[in-house]
Amino acid sequence: MRTYSIPLGSFFGVQLRLHLTFLLLGAFVIIQAVQAHASVDRGIALAVLMLVAVGLHEIGHVIAAGLMRVRLRLILLMPLGGVSFYGTRKRADASQDPAQGDEKRFLSPRQETIIALAGPLASLLVAGAAILYISATM
User: Fold this and answer.
1) DSSP assignment of 72-131
2) Among 1, 104, 106, 137, which one has the highest count of C-beta atoms within 10 angstroms of its own C-beta?
3) DSSP label at 1?
């Protein structure tokens, strides 16, 4: 995955990377804007808004994972959404039962559900804020 992505930095210790297909989507959007006789600026703005929307959605997942004490290593932003890569963490009860190993590799169903719902909730909050802003400026 790293060979087909560009590093964007980190957020709360989680690496953010942009997949190269996002750049192809951006180029496609700009070309479509020009063919529709709109300005290039509008195409660029739409491509940036798409990246911001996916990024904010994924930040919702990052915040929920942090609240659930789940360690995320990397988020890869792609045109259809993001992909999260979880890291293993030391188990608190590993010293009590060495047969279980010292790492927890899977999320509980509760953790998985909360983290999964956090992204769409973040998107709804952003949409609500945008609706409030638009209605206040009209």
Assistant:
1) EEEEEEETTEEEEEEPPEE-TTTTT-GGG-SEE-S--HHHHHHHHHHHHHHHHHHHHHHH
2) 104
3) -
CA distance linking residue 58 with residue 54, whole number of Å: 6
Give the predicted TM-score (pTM) of the model. 0.76
Residue with tokens 């608190």: 92
Instruction: Judge whether residue 69 has pLDDT over 50.
Output: yes
Choice between 33 and 103, residue whose per-residue pLDDT is larger = 33
| Band of residue 80 on the pLDDT scale cut at 50, 70, 90 | confident
CA separation for the pair 60, 116 (Å, rounded)? 9
